[in-house]
Amino acid sequence: MMSQVASPSISALLDARLAGHSLPQGLYTRPDVFEADLDVLFRKHWIYVGLECDVPEPGDASVVELGTSSIILLRDDDGQIRVVHNVCRHRGSRLLPPGPSVVSKLVCPYHQWTYELNGELVHAPHMGIDFDKSCRNLKPVTFRSIGGLIYVCLSDNPPDDIDRLVEVMERRLAPYDIRNTKIAFQTEVIEQGNWKLTLENNRECYHCSSNHPELCVSFIDLDFGYDPQSLSEEDRADAERHQALYAERTERWEAEGYPSAAVEQLVDCATNFRTQRLIIAGNGESQTPDATAASAKLLGSMTRKDLGDTHLWGHNCWNHFMGDHAVTSLVIPLSADRTLVRTKWLVHKDAVEGVDYDLEKLTNVWIATTDQDSELVARSHAGITDPAYEPGCYSAFTEGHLDKFSTWYIERMRAHGY
Ligand code: 3BY
Ligand code: FES
Ligand code: FE
Question: Which DSSP category does 38 fall into?
Fold first, then answer.
Protein backbone atom coordinates (compact mmCIF):
# COMPACT_ATOMS: atom_id res chain seq x y z
CA MET A 1 0.00 0.00 0.00
CA MET A 2 1.24 3.52 -0.84
CA SER A 3 1.92 5.58 2.24
CA GLN A 4 0.31 8.99 2.28
CA VAL A 5 2.32 11.83 3.79
CA ALA A 6 -0.02 14.53 5.11
CA SER A 7 1.03 18.01 4.04
CA PRO A 8 1.74 20.43 6.84
CA SER A 9 -0.98 22.87 7.85
CA ILE A 10 -0.65 26.50 6.76
CA SER A 11 0.06 27.35 10.35
CA ALA A 12 2.94 24.83 10.43
CA LEU A 13 4.38 26.41 7.27
CA LEU A 14 4.22 29.83 8.92
CA ASP A 15 5.97 28.38 11.98
CA ALA A 16 8.71 26.96 9.79
CA ARG A 17 9.74 30.35 8.43
CA LEU A 18 13.20 31.32 9.64
CA ALA A 19 13.84 35.01 10.35
CA GLY A 20 15.96 36.64 7.68
CA HIS A 21 15.04 33.95 5.14
CA SER A 22 12.71 33.58 2.21
CA LEU A 23 9.51 31.63 2.90
CA PRO A 24 9.05 27.85 2.97
CA GLN A 25 8.14 26.44 -0.44
CA GLY A 26 4.48 25.73 0.27
CA LEU A 27 3.76 29.34 1.13
CA TYR A 28 4.62 30.27 -2.45
CA THR A 29 3.20 27.25 -4.26
CA ARG A 30 0.20 25.70 -2.50
CA PRO A 31 -3.33 26.44 -3.76
CA ASP A 32 -4.73 26.39 -0.19
CA VAL A 33 -2.19 29.04 0.83
CA PHE A 34 -3.15 31.08 -2.22
CA GLU A 35 -6.81 31.01 -1.14
CA ALA A 36 -5.83 31.99 2.40
CA ASP A 37 -3.65 34.83 1.05
CA LEU A 38 -6.54 36.16 -1.03
CA ASP A 39 -8.86 36.04 1.93
CA VAL A 40 -6.46 37.58 4.45
CA LEU A 41 -4.24 39.97 2.50
CA PHE A 42 -6.64 40.99 -0.26
CA ARG A 43 -10.05 40.91 1.45
CA LYS A 44 -9.30 41.84 5.03
CA HIS A 45 -6.69 44.51 4.22
CA TRP A 46 -6.81 47.70 2.21
CA ILE A 47 -5.74 47.15 -1.36
CA TYR A 48 -4.98 49.56 -4.16
CA VAL A 49 -7.37 48.99 -7.09
CA GLY A 50 -7.22 51.99 -9.40
CA LEU A 51 -7.38 55.73 -9.74
CA GLU A 52 -9.94 58.49 -9.93
CA CYS A 53 -8.63 59.15 -13.43
CA ASP A 54 -9.71 55.64 -14.48
CA VAL A 55 -13.21 57.16 -14.46
CA PRO A 56 -12.73 60.83 -15.39
CA GLU A 57 -16.31 61.68 -16.48
CA PRO A 58 -19.79 60.97 -15.02
CA GLY A 59 -20.89 57.58 -16.38
CA ASP A 60 -17.36 56.20 -16.66
CA ALA A 61 -17.02 52.82 -14.99
CA SER A 62 -14.13 50.45 -14.51
CA VAL A 63 -14.50 46.87 -13.29
CA VAL A 64 -11.66 45.33 -11.29
CA GLU A 65 -11.72 41.61 -10.61
CA LEU A 66 -10.09 39.94 -7.65
CA GLY A 67 -10.60 36.23 -7.10
CA THR A 68 -14.35 35.64 -7.10
CA SER A 69 -15.04 39.31 -6.34
CA SER A 70 -15.69 41.96 -8.91
CA ILE A 71 -16.07 45.63 -8.09
CA ILE A 72 -17.18 48.61 -10.14
CA LEU A 73 -15.37 51.94 -9.74
CA LEU A 74 -17.53 54.62 -11.21
CA ARG A 75 -18.20 58.32 -11.35
CA ASP A 76 -21.81 59.23 -10.64
CA ASP A 77 -23.90 62.04 -12.13
CA ASP A 78 -22.66 64.45 -9.44
CA GLY A 79 -19.03 63.71 -10.29
CA GLN A 80 -18.53 61.67 -7.09
CA ILE A 81 -16.51 58.48 -7.07
CA ARG A 82 -18.51 55.38 -6.11
CA VAL A 83 -17.38 51.82 -5.64
CA VAL A 84 -20.01 49.06 -5.65
CA HIS A 85 -20.04 45.29 -5.89
CA ASN A 86 -20.63 44.05 -9.43
CA VAL A 87 -23.45 41.77 -8.26
CA CYS A 88 -27.06 42.39 -9.21
CA ARG A 89 -29.44 42.40 -6.24
CA HIS A 90 -31.97 40.29 -8.16
CA ARG A 91 -30.28 36.97 -8.82
CA GLY A 92 -26.68 38.00 -8.67
CA SER A 93 -25.69 38.45 -12.29
CA ARG A 94 -22.62 40.50 -13.11
CA LEU A 95 -23.71 43.94 -14.30
CA LEU A 96 -20.62 44.98 -16.25
CA PRO A 97 -17.75 43.11 -17.90
CA PRO A 98 -14.15 43.50 -16.66
CA GLY A 99 -12.39 46.72 -17.74
CA PRO A 100 -13.81 50.10 -18.77
CA SER A 101 -17.42 50.91 -19.74
CA VAL A 102 -19.47 54.06 -20.24
CA VAL A 103 -23.01 53.91 -18.83
CA SER A 104 -25.89 56.26 -18.11
CA LYS A 105 -27.40 53.81 -15.61
CA LEU A 106 -26.35 50.35 -14.50
CA VAL A 107 -28.74 47.99 -16.27
CA CYS A 108 -28.46 44.31 -15.47
CA PRO A 109 -28.32 42.39 -18.77
CA TYR A 110 -30.29 39.48 -17.29
CA HIS A 111 -33.73 40.94 -16.36
CA GLN A 112 -33.08 44.67 -16.71
CA TRP A 113 -33.05 45.66 -13.08
CA THR A 114 -31.74 49.21 -13.32
CA TYR A 115 -29.61 51.14 -10.87
CA GLU A 116 -28.63 54.80 -10.71
CA LEU A 117 -24.90 55.50 -10.77
CA ASN A 118 -25.10 56.01 -7.00
CA GLY A 119 -26.20 52.36 -6.69
CA GLU A 120 -29.88 53.04 -6.05
CA LEU A 121 -32.29 50.49 -7.56
CA VAL A 122 -34.80 52.48 -9.63
CA HIS A 123 -36.44 49.92 -11.88
CA ALA A 124 -37.32 46.27 -11.19
CA PRO A 125 -39.95 45.15 -13.70
CA HIS A 126 -42.66 42.62 -12.79
CA MET A 127 -41.86 42.53 -9.10
CA GLY A 128 -45.31 43.76 -8.03
CA ILE A 129 -46.35 47.06 -6.55
CA ASP A 130 -45.53 46.00 -2.99
CA PHE A 131 -41.91 45.26 -3.83
CA ASP A 132 -39.58 47.43 -1.74
CA LYS A 133 -36.76 48.56 -4.01
CA SER A 134 -35.10 50.61 -1.34
CA CYS A 135 -33.47 47.60 0.32
CA ARG A 136 -32.10 46.30 -2.97
CA ASN A 137 -29.54 48.97 -3.81
CA LEU A 138 -26.14 47.80 -5.02
CA LYS A 139 -23.85 46.95 -2.14
CA PRO A 140 -21.27 49.67 -1.61
CA VAL A 141 -17.58 48.81 -1.17
CA THR A 142 -15.63 50.61 1.55
CA PHE A 143 -13.08 52.81 -0.17
CA ARG A 144 -10.76 55.77 0.32
CA SER A 145 -9.39 58.00 -2.39
CA ILE A 146 -5.89 58.96 -1.29
CA GLY A 147 -4.78 61.86 -3.45
CA GLY A 148 -6.67 60.23 -6.35
CA LEU A 149 -5.48 56.66 -5.66
CA ILE A 150 -8.40 54.37 -4.84
CA TYR A 151 -7.98 51.87 -2.03
CA VAL A 152 -10.75 49.47 -1.08
CA CYS A 153 -11.31 47.05 1.74
CA LEU A 154 -13.70 44.17 1.11
CA SER A 155 -14.13 43.30 4.78
CA ASP A 156 -16.70 44.72 7.23
CA ASN A 157 -13.91 45.58 9.58
CA PRO A 158 -11.32 47.61 7.64
CA PRO A 159 -8.01 48.20 9.43
CA ASP A 160 -7.94 51.76 10.79
CA ASP A 161 -4.20 52.28 10.34
CA ILE A 162 -5.02 53.34 6.76
CA ASP A 163 -5.35 56.76 8.42
CA ARG A 164 -1.58 57.14 8.57
CA LEU A 165 -1.28 56.42 4.84
CA VAL A 166 -4.00 58.97 4.14
CA GLU A 167 -2.40 61.62 6.34
CA VAL A 168 1.08 61.13 4.85
CA MET A 169 0.16 60.69 1.19
CA GLU A 170 -2.59 63.33 0.79
CA ARG A 171 0.01 65.94 1.60
CA ARG A 172 2.81 64.35 -0.39
CA LEU A 173 0.69 63.86 -3.48
CA ALA A 174 -1.03 67.27 -3.41
CA PRO A 175 1.44 69.05 -5.74
CA TYR A 176 1.09 66.26 -8.34
CA ASP A 177 -2.73 66.56 -8.40
CA ILE A 178 -3.12 62.94 -9.46
CA ARG A 179 -6.91 63.43 -9.53
CA ASN A 180 -6.37 65.60 -12.62
CA THR A 181 -4.17 63.29 -14.62
CA LYS A 182 -4.98 61.05 -17.53
CA ILE A 183 -3.84 57.55 -18.28
CA ALA A 184 -1.51 57.90 -21.25
CA PHE A 185 -0.78 54.18 -21.44
CA GLN A 186 -1.55 50.97 -19.61
CA THR A 187 -0.08 47.46 -19.69
CA GLU A 188 -1.10 44.17 -18.15
CA VAL A 189 1.61 41.59 -17.65
CA ILE A 190 0.80 38.16 -16.26
CA GLU A 191 3.80 36.95 -14.33
CA GLN A 192 4.24 33.19 -14.02
CA GLY A 193 4.84 33.32 -10.31
CA ASN A 194 3.29 33.75 -6.88
CA TRP A 195 2.23 37.29 -5.94
CA LYS A 196 4.63 37.36 -2.98
CA LEU A 197 7.55 36.80 -5.38
CA THR A 198 6.30 39.74 -7.46
CA LEU A 199 6.39 41.88 -4.33
CA GLU A 200 9.70 40.54 -3.07
CA ASN A 201 11.25 41.23 -6.44
CA ASN A 202 10.04 44.82 -6.26
CA ARG A 203 11.38 45.35 -2.75
CA GLU A 204 15.04 45.09 -3.73
CA CYS A 205 17.38 46.50 -6.30
CA TYR A 206 20.09 43.89 -5.68
CA HIS A 207 19.05 42.59 -9.11
CA CYS A 208 18.91 45.98 -10.83
CA SER A 209 22.46 46.46 -12.10
CA SER A 210 22.51 43.08 -13.83
CA ASN A 211 18.90 43.11 -15.11
CA HIS A 212 17.60 46.66 -15.64
CA PRO A 213 19.95 48.65 -17.91
CA GLU A 214 17.14 51.10 -18.83
CA LEU A 215 16.01 51.73 -15.25
CA CYS A 216 19.56 52.14 -13.93
CA VAL A 217 20.01 55.36 -15.95
CA SER A 218 17.59 57.13 -13.59
CA PHE A 219 17.04 54.86 -10.58
CA ILE A 220 19.38 54.71 -7.62
CA ASP A 221 18.97 51.75 -5.31
CA LEU A 222 17.40 52.67 -1.96
CA ASP A 223 20.09 50.54 -0.34
CA PHE A 224 22.93 52.16 -2.29
CA GLY A 225 26.16 51.74 -0.36
CA TYR A 226 25.63 48.06 0.45
CA ASP A 227 27.86 46.25 2.86
CA PRO A 228 30.40 48.88 3.91
CA GLN A 229 32.91 46.20 4.98
CA SER A 230 33.06 44.64 1.54
CA LEU A 231 33.52 47.94 -0.30
CA SER A 232 36.82 49.24 -1.62
CA GLU A 233 38.11 52.48 -0.13
CA GLU A 234 36.95 54.30 -3.25
CA ASP A 235 33.45 52.79 -3.26
CA ARG A 236 33.05 53.50 0.43
CA ALA A 237 33.88 57.16 -0.13
CA ASP A 238 31.33 57.15 -2.97
CA ALA A 239 28.65 55.66 -0.73
CA GLU A 240 29.38 58.22 1.98
CA ARG A 241 29.10 61.06 -0.54
CA HIS A 242 25.79 59.62 -1.67
CA GLN A 243 24.44 59.47 1.91
CA ALA A 244 25.52 63.07 2.50
CA LEU A 245 23.86 64.17 -0.75
CA TYR A 246 20.62 62.45 0.30
CA ALA A 247 20.62 64.15 3.68
CA GLU A 248 21.29 67.53 2.09
CA ARG A 249 18.65 67.15 -0.68
CA THR A 250 16.01 65.83 1.71
CA GLU A 251 16.55 68.76 4.04
CA ARG A 252 16.40 71.26 1.17
CA TRP A 253 13.26 69.76 -0.37
CA GLU A 254 11.55 69.68 3.03
CA ALA A 255 12.52 73.32 3.65
CA GLU A 256 10.98 74.20 0.28
CA GLY A 257 7.70 72.65 1.42
CA TYR A 258 7.93 69.25 -0.29
CA PRO A 259 7.64 66.35 2.19
CA SER A 260 10.56 64.07 1.38
CA ALA A 261 11.86 62.11 4.37
CA ALA A 262 11.18 58.39 4.43
CA VAL A 263 7.99 57.34 6.21
CA GLU A 264 7.36 53.65 6.62
CA GLN A 265 4.86 51.37 8.29
CA LEU A 266 6.09 47.95 7.27
CA VAL A 267 5.79 45.59 10.24
CA ASP A 268 3.54 45.46 13.33
CA CYS A 269 0.75 47.03 11.29
CA ALA A 270 -2.13 46.01 9.05
CA THR A 271 -1.62 48.61 6.33
CA ASN A 272 1.85 48.24 4.87
CA PHE A 273 3.43 51.22 3.11
CA ARG A 274 6.65 53.13 2.53
CA THR A 275 7.26 56.47 0.88
CA GLN A 276 10.27 58.67 0.32
CA ARG A 277 11.32 61.32 -2.16
CA LEU A 278 14.13 59.64 -4.05
CA ILE A 279 16.95 61.28 -5.95
CA ILE A 280 16.78 60.57 -9.68
CA ALA A 281 20.18 59.73 -11.19
CA GLY A 282 21.77 61.23 -14.33
CA ASN A 283 19.85 64.24 -15.61
CA GLY A 284 17.72 63.93 -12.49
CA GLU A 285 14.26 64.68 -13.90
CA SER A 286 12.37 61.52 -14.71
CA GLN A 287 12.47 57.75 -15.27
CA THR A 288 13.08 57.98 -19.01
CA PRO A 289 15.90 56.68 -21.24
CA ASP A 290 18.02 59.82 -20.62
CA ALA A 291 16.49 60.83 -17.26
CA THR A 292 15.01 64.04 -18.72
CA ALA A 293 11.29 64.79 -18.53
CA ALA A 294 9.07 63.00 -21.07
CA SER A 295 6.19 65.46 -20.74
CA ALA A 296 6.62 69.21 -21.13
CA LYS A 297 3.35 69.77 -19.26
CA LEU A 298 4.26 69.06 -15.66
CA LEU A 299 1.84 67.41 -13.23
CA GLY A 300 -0.48 69.49 -11.03
CA SER A 301 1.10 72.61 -9.63
CA MET A 302 4.64 71.41 -10.26
CA THR A 303 6.86 74.07 -11.77
CA ARG A 304 10.12 72.20 -11.30
CA LYS A 305 11.59 69.02 -12.67
CA ASP A 306 14.19 68.67 -9.92
CA LEU A 307 11.96 67.31 -7.18
CA GLY A 308 12.98 63.70 -7.63
CA ASP A 309 10.70 60.69 -7.46
CA THR A 310 8.15 60.28 -4.67
CA HIS A 311 7.88 56.53 -4.37
CA LEU A 312 5.05 54.71 -2.65
CA TRP A 313 4.97 51.02 -1.86
CA GLY A 314 2.01 49.03 -0.59
CA HIS A 315 1.54 45.29 -0.29
CA ASN A 316 -0.07 45.21 -3.73
CA CYS A 317 1.54 48.17 -5.45
CA TRP A 318 4.52 50.33 -6.26
CA ASN A 319 4.35 53.88 -7.58
CA HIS A 320 6.68 56.62 -8.73
CA PHE A 321 5.49 60.25 -8.85
CA MET A 322 7.79 62.59 -10.75
CA GLY A 323 7.52 66.18 -11.96
CA ASP A 324 6.33 65.30 -15.45
CA HIS A 325 4.59 61.95 -15.02
CA ALA A 326 3.78 59.10 -12.68
CA VAL A 327 4.00 55.34 -13.05
CA THR A 328 1.71 53.20 -10.94
CA SER A 329 1.64 49.41 -10.77
CA LEU A 330 -0.93 47.27 -9.01
CA VAL A 331 -0.72 43.57 -8.31
CA ILE A 332 -3.63 41.13 -8.46
CA PRO A 333 -2.98 37.47 -7.64
CA LEU A 334 -4.63 35.12 -10.16
CA SER A 335 -3.55 31.73 -8.81
CA ALA A 336 -0.70 30.35 -6.71
CA ASP A 337 1.59 30.64 -9.73
CA ARG A 338 0.12 33.52 -11.78
CA THR A 339 0.04 37.21 -10.92
CA LEU A 340 -1.31 40.17 -12.84
CA VAL A 341 0.72 43.39 -12.83
CA ARG A 342 -1.29 46.32 -14.20
CA THR A 343 0.84 49.40 -14.90
CA LYS A 344 -0.41 52.88 -15.82
CA TRP A 345 1.53 55.91 -17.01
CA LEU A 346 -0.09 59.18 -15.90
CA VAL A 347 0.43 62.63 -17.40
CA HIS A 348 -1.32 65.98 -16.86
CA LYS A 349 -4.92 65.65 -18.09
CA ASP A 350 -4.36 68.37 -20.70
CA ALA A 351 -1.06 66.98 -22.01
CA VAL A 352 -1.32 66.03 -25.67
CA GLU A 353 0.52 63.04 -27.10
CA GLY A 354 2.99 64.03 -29.80
CA VAL A 355 2.83 67.66 -28.67
CA ASP A 356 3.60 67.67 -24.94
CA TYR A 357 4.96 64.15 -24.66
CA ASP A 358 6.34 61.32 -26.70
CA LEU A 359 4.71 58.02 -25.74
CA GLU A 360 7.79 55.94 -26.51
CA LYS A 361 9.99 58.10 -24.30
CA LEU A 362 7.34 58.10 -21.56
CA THR A 363 6.89 54.34 -21.39
CA ASN A 364 10.26 52.93 -22.48
CA VAL A 365 11.88 52.40 -19.07
CA TRP A 366 9.02 50.78 -17.20
CA ILE A 367 7.85 48.62 -20.12
CA ALA A 368 11.36 47.18 -20.26
CA THR A 369 11.67 46.95 -16.45
CA THR A 370 8.28 45.27 -16.05
CA ASP A 371 9.13 42.67 -18.72
CA GLN A 372 12.52 42.02 -17.15
CA ASP A 373 10.95 41.65 -13.70
CA SER A 374 8.35 39.28 -15.12
CA GLU A 375 11.16 37.00 -16.35
CA LEU A 376 12.88 37.15 -12.98
CA VAL A 377 9.69 36.27 -11.10
CA ALA A 378 8.96 33.33 -13.44
CA ARG A 379 12.47 31.98 -13.01
CA SER A 380 12.32 32.43 -9.29
CA HIS A 381 8.92 30.71 -9.01
CA ALA A 382 10.14 27.78 -11.13
CA GLY A 383 13.19 27.30 -8.91
CA ILE A 384 11.10 27.50 -5.77
CA THR A 385 8.80 24.68 -6.95
CA ASP A 386 11.85 22.40 -7.33
CA PRO A 387 12.12 19.81 -4.51
CA ALA A 388 15.72 21.01 -4.16
CA TYR A 389 14.57 24.48 -3.02
CA GLU A 390 15.16 25.48 0.54
CA PRO A 391 14.57 28.97 1.94
CA GLY A 392 17.57 31.20 1.29
CA CYS A 393 18.94 34.01 3.40
CA TYR A 394 18.24 37.59 2.56
CA SER A 395 21.16 40.01 2.42
CA ALA A 396 21.04 42.23 5.49
CA PHE A 397 22.37 45.03 3.28
CA THR A 398 20.28 44.81 0.14
CA GLU A 399 17.24 42.72 1.05
CA GLY A 400 16.13 44.17 4.37
CA HIS A 401 12.80 45.21 2.85
CA LEU A 402 12.09 41.63 1.75
CA ASP A 403 12.67 40.44 5.26
CA LYS A 404 10.19 43.06 6.49
CA PHE A 405 7.67 42.05 3.83
CA SER A 406 7.90 38.34 4.68
CA THR A 407 7.74 39.12 8.40
CA TRP A 408 4.65 41.29 7.85
CA TYR A 409 3.06 38.50 5.79
CA ILE A 410 3.55 35.97 8.59
CA GLU A 411 2.26 38.47 11.19
CA ARG A 412 -0.88 39.21 9.20
CA MET A 413 -1.67 35.53 8.55
CA ARG A 414 -1.27 34.87 12.27
CA ALA A 415 -3.47 37.87 13.14
CA HIS A 416 -6.21 36.23 11.08
CA GLY A 417 -6.08 32.88 12.78
CA TYR A 418 -3.48 30.88 10.86
O1 3BY B 1 9.85 50.12 -8.11
C2 3BY B 1 10.51 49.99 -7.10
O3 3BY B 1 10.22 50.65 -6.14
C4 3BY B 1 11.65 49.00 -6.99
C5 3BY B 1 12.75 49.50 -6.16
C6 3BY B 1 13.89 48.66 -6.54
C7 3BY B 1 13.49 47.86 -7.70
N8 3BY B 1 12.29 48.47 -8.17
C9 3BY B 1 12.61 49.44 -9.15
FE1 FES C 1 -29.99 41.09 -12.54
FE2 FES C 1 -32.05 39.47 -12.78
S3 FES C 1 -30.03 38.98 -12.14
S4 FES C 1 -31.97 41.56 -13.21
FE1 FE D 1 13.28 44.78 -10.94
Answer: I
